[in-house]
Amino acid sequence: MRFAVKAVIFMLLGATLAFAKPTIYILATGGTIAGSGSGALDTSYTSGTVTVDKLIAAVPDINKIATIKGEQISNIGSQEMNNEVWFKLANRVNELLTSGKADGVVITHGTDTMEETAYFLNLVVKSDKPIVMVGAMRNSGSLSADGPLNIFNAVNVAMNKEAVGKGVMVVMNDEIHAAREVTKTNTTAVDTFKSPNSGKIGTVFYGNVKFYMNPTRKHTVNSAFDITKIKELPRVDIIYSHSNDNPDFVNLAVKNGAKGIINAGMGNGNPFPSALEALGEAVKAGVVVVRDSRVGSGETTLNGEVDDGKYGFLASDNLNAQKARVLLMLALTQTTDKAKIQELFLTH
Length: 348
Known about the structure:
Layout (H helix, E strand, L loop, with lengths): L1 H17 L4 E8 L5 E2 L7 E2 L5 H6 L4 H4 L1 E10 L6 H17 L4 E5 L5 H11 L6 E4 L12 H12 L9 E5 L2 E4 L4 E2 L8 E2 L7 E4 L2 E4 L24 E5 L7 H8 L4 E6 L7 H12 L3 E6 L14 H4 L2 E2 L5 H12 L5 H10 L1
Parallel strand pairs: 1-4, 1-5, 5-6, 6-7, 13-14, 14-15, 15-16
Antiparallel strand pairs: 2-3, 7-8, 8-11, 9-10, 11-12
Pfam families: Asparaginase (PF00710), Asparaginase_C (PF17763)
Keywords: Hydrolase, Signal
Organism: Campylobacter showae RM3277
């Protein structure tokens, strides 16, 4: 009889553990998802006016599937995103995941710079637990606001066992994208986020998560970077190339103390001749110059039309300019050796 009672107890404990809800933290930073306007059809609105508790209250079903905890990291439009918020966010995510307080983290964020924050976290957080970025293209008071369903889907991805080890992900419009690959491609459309070089890694339809691919570049636990060892980021500027260009912005960046320059060149990363010479002079002055492209997809190759060896340039592989800037800033916290930095661009 005693053994039978023990067996029942163990079965009940096992069932309880099997159905124990995961703990998911929602860290809010602001953005359109936390924005509000004067009416459902008003296209003007103010970002970052809705607090994290209201965002959670708008999606009551997430409390049925997870233990939800919310924190307000910032409340800004993501066009205002800055290094201070990045460090605060990265340190908090790292603390929550490495301490065991959270099984996954969802970060609500504006869409303008979501891809940059996602890639930054992808490189500096040391955990293989799911980290999911989510936003909205329509503010919380808009007709057919997309924020609530996006949050519901993001929580489902963050608690999905198959999401472990995939690094930081962006969940928008029923799609799952890897942080390194995703970019915003349309100013207003709800399907704005795409991964032009590789495609999405999965889908999530009303909480039904399916993964199809894995990110292959180094990230999170395998990344060369660790947020606990980084105290500040050096200045890196992006300079956009165009026909009939001039060297003025290159020279100004060097004068104002830029440690690195990402040149968003034409085609396969080609600068205008006078800008090319100015970039070469920048290298001689100790600035690390990485050639990138303004095209939006594809690889910027070493030694194409530009003799990179002659000028001392690096190439960004297939990172877009804004993500190349993130990686170069982090690389410069460790080294100015160009061969080592180039290797980081080929592996991260």
